[in-house]
TrEMBL record:
The keyword Metal-binding applies. Residues 243-257 form the CCHC-type domain. This is CCHC-type domain-containing protein. Transmembrane segments: none annotated. The keyword Transferase does not apply.
Length: 320
């Protein structure tokens, strides 16, 4: 059901667009200037209310600014080899018992469950990542049961529509889906295909989003169906950045979220969007961006945090 509300929010994206365009035609109406933040942006972006002004205002509505790429923390994916390790939690426990980052001068900032019983480590610097990656891959107690590598962020992702649900837990569903996909399309074992997550589909079906090896993607990209058992399933390339609909950050999913509270998509408050009473929409990503960068150009904040117009979202999308 959690996933369902995510979808509602996704479809709410067009709604928020409409909201902001209505506001645009209203201009700087006094009631829209609730917070200081909004007031400042309204002053910068429009010179309406020409009190005693000569000639029409010349300042144009600014376009979406191009933001510099975000400085990424280094990440490392550790994936089990073979069947020895049954879950992400088990792998984490094993790594914690064998590897002691503090003795190597490595700061591991977080450890999250990842696809295929793996874990994703967030590490402070690329140098530290190299140290811990090497340590895992040469460790006598680890090198035969797991492998550490940089995430292959570049693999194309596809959304496969309406996959029949088998009724097992997430790991069983995932394994069954991948196995059938491989078998039905004669995809070799060496070809990298990973299930990333699923979304609710029609009725008893769910849409799966796997990442697929670029070589394989190349062979299917001009089609829109993959074989699946005695039938076939429709798919499209999936270009959305990974994002969490709980804390609204990019790069992880709700299932892996460490935040204690749901954050609002409509304002910067710590409540669900369903309970929001804020009179205007304010994007938390852009508010945060402006807050961190006290100098330099500011970005507009009058859109929802899940708007497709959000410059932070656009930057994430380019990255993926
Ligand atoms: Zn989150
Ligand atoms: Zn709110
Ligand atoms: Zn934004």
């Amino acid at each position: 059901m959690e996933q369902g509300s995510d979808l509602q929010k996704l479809s709410g994206v067009t709604g928020s667009r409409r909201d902001s365009s209505t506001r645009k035609t209203k201009g700087t109406s006094p009631q829209s200037d609730v917070s200081g933040e909004k007031m400042e942006i309204a002053e910068k972006s429009s010179c309406s209310e020409p009190v005693g002004m000569v000639g029409p205002p010349l300042v144009q509505r600014p376009g979406i600014p191009t933001l510099p790429p975000r400085q990424l923390l280094s990440t490392l994916v550790v994936t089990p080899i073979g069947e020895t390790i049954a879950s992400s939690a088990q792998l984490q426990t094993l790594l914690e018992s064998m590897i002691h980052p503090q003795n190597m001068g490595v700061d591991v900032l977080s450890c999250l469950p990842a696809a295929n019983r793996g874990v994703l480590l967030c590490i402070r610097t690329p140098e530290m990542r190299y140290i811990i990656e090497t340590a895992i891959n040469i460790h006598t107690g680890l090198k035969d049961v797991c492998v550490a590598r940089e995430p292959r962020g570049r693999n194309p992702r596809i959304l496969v529509y309406d996959v029949p649900v088998t009724g097992g837990n997430r790991e069983t569903e995932e394994a069954a889906f991948l196995q059938k996909l491989r078998y039905s399309n004669s995809i070799s074992d060496e070809t990298d295909i990973r299930a990333l997550f699923w979304r609710p589909g029609r009725g008893p079906f769910q849409h799966w989003v796997p990442s697929v090896a670029p070589e394989y993607f190349h062979t299917i990209k001009d089609t829109n169906r993959v074989f699946f058992g005695f039938g076939s399933l429709k798919f499209r390339e999936y270009l959305e950045p990974t994002r969490c609909y709980k804390c609204l950050k990019f790069g992880h999913l709700r299932a892996n979220c460490g935040a204690s509270q749901e954050l609002c998509t409509k304002c910067t408050g710590a409540h669900s969007y369903k309970e929001c009473t804020a009179p205007t929409v304010v994007c938390r990503h852009c508010t945060e961006y402006n807050r961190r960068r006290r100098t330099g150009p500011r970005v507009r904040t009058d859109h929802s945090a899940i708007s497709v117009r959000c410059p932070i979202y656009i930057r994430e999308r380019k990255k993926s």
